Amino acid sequence: MTKRLAEVAKKAGVSEATVSRVLNGRSGVSEATRTSVLTALDVLGYERPTKLRGERARLVGLVLPELQNPIFPALAEVVTGSLAQRGFTPALCARTIGGVPESDYVEMLLDHQVSGVIFAGGSYALTDASHEHYRRLTDRGLPVVLVNAGVDELGFPRVSTDDAVAVEQAWGHLRSLGHERIGMVLGPEGHVPSGRKLAAMIQVAGDNPSFVERSSFSMEGARVAATKLVERGVTGIICASDVLALGAIRAARRLGKAVPADVSVVGFDDSAFMTCTDPPLTTVRQPIETMGQAAVDILVSQIEEARVLSDELLFEPELVVRGSTGPAPTH
């Protein structure tokens, strides 16, 4: 018990005596201090005293995929900062390959009496994945917001980049440079945002594009997929993420092609350091700051007003032209 008091006091930045007063329900403690102590208790994984368990912590879960794609740490920075400004404590849950699955993080967050959860890049975006853990959140009436497109039947509010506009911008840019054989490297089958990008490509290209390859969201997976496209004579490649675009550039070079002289590549995200790649990457920028703040606003409005929204907010992306795209080769 003494160790627990000391740990909670240190985490909350108060004295052990103050922690004791909060846990025993005594007066003489401000509401802000009381909230800090209870949040520290939740974050450290200690159970609340029975009489305090009915109250949800001002703790919000942020569940992300592995952080290899720089766009996710950027989103985490926006969301955690915005939550802190609204008086909530973020609990960051980042998955790793072979590590804790998303469903286990959901159980942990429920055990900690969180006020709500924001998900990004989760299994909600995969049609063939299990969605049972999301239904547990629905059953509890817990506020949830998804970042980017997910399967429709979950019914959670979504804050998404407009995938159709992203493809229109990328395709229009490559066409303006004279490219006629334009391919795509997308995420796996059943990945909803990739499906939306493919539908948009069919719309702008006027028919079913034959130059489409699927990949895991890894540089190596993209290299394999893009190699097939380049070998089939594609001169412009639109990718579903910046990581995939870097894999496509690597594929072109391994085949003895120059970027952009022989093959032009367009990414998606505009994640950190894309100005520092060789060549600097032309990409479609997701408005991460605006989207992250919107996700927090929607979540907090549900928490404080108990309003359930199931709409999807679409945010317009922006084409950022750099050095990885150029005129189509004439040979």
From TrEMBL:
<dbReference type="GO" id="GO:0003700">
    <property type="term" value="F:DNA-binding transcription factor activity"/>
</dbReference>
<dbReference type="InterPro" id="IPR010982">
    <property type="entry name" value="Lambda_DNA-bd_dom_sf"/>
</dbReference>
<protein>
    <submittedName>
        <fullName>LacI family transcriptional regulator</fullName>
    </submittedName>
</protein>
<keyword id="KW-0805">Transcription regulation</keyword>
<keyword id="KW-0804">Transcription</keyword>
<dbReference type="InterPro" id="IPR046335">
    <property type="entry name" value="LacI/GalR-like_sensor"/>
</dbReference>
<keyword id="KW-0238">DNA-binding</keyword>
<dbReference type="InterPro" id="IPR028082">
    <property type="entry name" value="Peripla_BP_I"/>
</dbReference>
<feature type="domain" description="HTH lacI-type">
    <location>
        <begin position="1"/>
        <end position="57"/>
    </location>
</feature>
<dbReference type="Pfam" id="PF00356">
    <property type="entry name" value="LacI"/>
</dbReference>
<dbReference type="Pfam" id="PF13377">
    <property type="entry name" value="Peripla_BP_3"/>
</dbReference>
<dbReference type="GO" id="GO:0000976">
    <property type="term" value="F:transcription cis-regulatory region binding"/>
</dbReference>
<dbReference type="InterPro" id="IPR000843">
    <property type="entry name" value="HTH_LacI"/>
</dbReference>
